[in-house]
Amino acid sequence: MALEIPSHVIVFPFPVQGHVNSMLKLSELLCLSGIHVTFLNSDHNHCLFSTSDIRSYLLYRYPDLFNFATISDGLSDDHPRSGNRIKDLFKAIEITLIPLFKDMLISGRLNLKFGCFPTCIIIDGTMCSAINVGKDMGIPVIVFRTISASCFWAFFNIPNLIESNEIPLKDNCDMDKYVESVPGMEKILRLRDLPGFCRAADSSDFGLQMMMNQTQLTINAHGLILNTAEELEEEALTQIRRLIPNVYTIGPLHALLNYRLPLTTRPSTSLWEEDRSCMAWLDSQHPRSVIYVSFGSIAVMKSEDIVEILHGLENSGRPFLWVFRPNSVHGVWPVRELGSIGVKKQGYMVEWAPQEEVLAHPSVGGFLTHSGWNSTLESLVSGVPMICWPYFGDQQVNSRFVGEVWKTGLDMKDLCDRKVVEKMVNELLGVKKDMFLESTKVMAKLVNKSLVMGGTSSNHLDRLINDIKVIVNKFN
Ligand code: UDX
Question: Which of 16, 17, 25, 145 to probe ligand 1 with, by most ligand atoms within 8 A of CB?
Answer without folding.
Answer: 17
